[in-house]
Amino acid sequence: MTAPGRSRARWSPLAAVLAAAFAGCAATEPALPHRPPEPVDLPNGFGTPTAAGHVAVDWWLAFAAPGLDAAVRQGLEHNRDLRAAVARLDAARAQAVVAGGAAWPTLEAGADAARRRQNFPGLPLPGGNDLHTTYSTFGVDLTASWEIDLWGRVRAGVDAASAEFAASAVDLRAAQLSLAAQIARAWFARLEARLQLELAERSQASWAASAEAVQGRFAAGVRPALDVHLVATGRHAAQAQVAFRREQHERAVRQLELLLGRYPSGAIGQEPAALPVVGAPPPAGLPATLLRQRPDLVAAEFRALAQDRRVAAATAALYPRLVLSASVGTNAATADRVLDPDFLVWSLLGGVTAPLFRGGALRAEVDLQQAQLQAACATWGAAVLRACGEVEIALAAGARLAERAAGLELAHTAAQAAFAAASTRYRAGLENVVTLLEAQRRADETESQWLAARHACVDARITLFVALGGGFDLDAKTPEPTGEPR
Questions:
Q1: What distance in Å separates the CA atoms of residue 263 and residue 279, rounded to the nearest whole number?
Q2: Which of 51, 70, 138, 260 lies in the 20 to 30 Å Cα band around 273?
Q3: Which CATH number fits domain 26-104+152-183+257-318+362-467: 2.60.120.810, 1.10.1040.10, 1.20.1600.10, 3.40.50.720?
Q4: pLDDT higher than 60, residue 482
Q5: How far apart are CA 209 and CA 291, in angstroms?
Q6: What is the spatial distance between Cα 375 and Cα 387, in angstroms, rounded to a whole number?
């Protein structure tokens, strides 16, 4: 039988994991001393290889949106769900410390006092009473015990707990990334809702002006009542659209307040004037190494490592255990002699226990842990493939959405020009009201679609940031893992 732990030497111990203690776990992820092989073959880059780059922590600053940074930081500090994630990390840290205690000797101190009576039947004393004696004992003792970890079973268990703690620390980073993305999306959703509301209000005013012009021509007897009814339909629809957009804006404001940990009062302060212009997409060759920064991938890697350590611990449980124990203390008949060295007692014991027969339970435990290791590695591999797909989809979606926004901008410009021409021609009596109303509808519709497309471009860039585990800076070189805490 192969000695436990040797068949899996590619997994390094996690002594550095607890030593690092993830003092900056709110903003950084832990690093493995030596990374295991990738579960899937990663491309050199997304597009054509290759480019250098690193993940930016404050990725939302790339939008240069006034107030967004303060909102994200407020949410990271006050969001209740994130506080729950921090509490779960504290629990994982405590659990890792509990598991680590098994690698150290145990030391216990005790003190006792007793008074006993012993009878001797059949040995009567004069007067018919049986012989008996009564005595007291007092003592203090110090006991130590330690399992010599011959096969690495205890160390493997400690490493598994350390890796789980590391995964929990990265889970917190993932929760922070997700919350920041939700806040950014809610921030820009609120901004688009406000811009759509302003557009609806301008449209309502424009329809009112059109209705006034039609009413004037009807009063002059040059246009039929049908024109009045048609423009009235558009005017009332514009009023309804204002109410709809106002409700959307109020909803967006309250959703953002909830993410920030506030009571949803509907008053969140000043908003930016316009949606930000999304910068140029990253060039071809966005490095796949940026995916190492994704918290879910790092957490999956740590969990695979933890499961590997559990396999080693289960394998080591097949071997004998050696336990040393020692105790020293005193045992005296009176309390004033409890610290007298003349009454010193001590013991030293070494014991070996070996499992002989447990109905195959120990070997079944090894098989169980190995199967769970295969599942953990498969989960890790699936997460890597899913992350690659998310990056590729986000890159392609960003490019297509930018094209759509550019087309809608041109369509909006043309529609505005058509509406201006239709209004002039209608007032001159050269155009019918149907053409006027259709031109106005198209002008409003294309501007609304253009706003939505610009917001979609911003949302797609947020999706790309999240897919990469944060922002990206292709002018910097991606550092290689060194084994030291980052």
A1: 34
A2: 260
A3: 1.20.1600.10
A4: no
A5: 55
A6: 18
Q: Rounded to an integer, what distance in angstroms lies between the CA atom of residue 60 and that of residue 461?
A: 10
Q: How far apart are CA 385 and CA 197, in angstroms?
A: 41
For residues 98 and 87, give the distance between their C-alpha atoms in angstroms, rounded to a whole number. Answer: 17
Torsion angles phi and psi, residue 8, rounded to 5: -125, 40
Does the N-terminal peptide bond of residue 50 adopt cis geometry, omega within 30 degrees of 0? yes
- The rounded Cα 467 to chain-centroid distance in angstroms is 12
Calpha distance 341→344 (Å, rounded): 5
Which pLDDT band holds residue 55 (cuts at 50, 70, 90)? Answer: very low
Q: What angle do CA 465, 466, 472 make, to 5 degrees?
A: 30
- Those residues whose C-beta lies under 8 Å from the C-beta of residue 129, and which sit 6 or more positions away, are none
Q: Is 297 exposed, middle or buried (0-12, 13-18, 19+ CB in 10 A)?
A: buried
Residues 138/113, Cβ–Cβ less than 8 Å: yes
The residue among 43, 7, 54, 177 whose CA lies nearest residue 480 is 54
d(CA 54, CA 325): 53
Look at 143-152, 234-243, 279-288, 368-377 and tell me which has the smallest mean pLDDT. Answer: 279-288
CA atoms within 13 A on the CB side of 227: 24
Q: How far apart are CA 82 and CA 461, in angstroms?
A: 23
Which of 40-44, 373-377, 438-442 has the least mean pLDDT?
A: 40-44
Q: Are 335 and 113 in contact (CB under 8 A)?
A: yes
Name the E strands within 48-169: 106-124, 130-148
Tokens standing for residue 253: 């404001």
Where in 249-335 does DSSP place strands (E)?
A: 286-287, 321-332
Q: Which residues contact 219 (CB under 8 A, 6 or more apart)?
A: none
> How far apart are the C-alpha atoms of 259 and 197, rounded to whole Å?
22
User: Which residues are paired to 329 by β-bridges?
Assistant: 141, 345
Nearest by Cα to 270 from 446, 66, 64, 1: 66
**Residues 70, 73, 77, 83: is their CA dihedral positive or negative?**
positive
How far is residue 266's CA from residue 246's CA, in Å, rounded to a whole number?
12
Q: What are the residues facing 54 on neighbouring strands?
A: 473
Assign domain 106-148+320-353 to its CATH superfamily: Outer membrane efflux proteins (OEP) (2.20.200.10)
List the domain boundaries for the chain: 26-104+152-183+257-318+362-467, 106-148+320-353
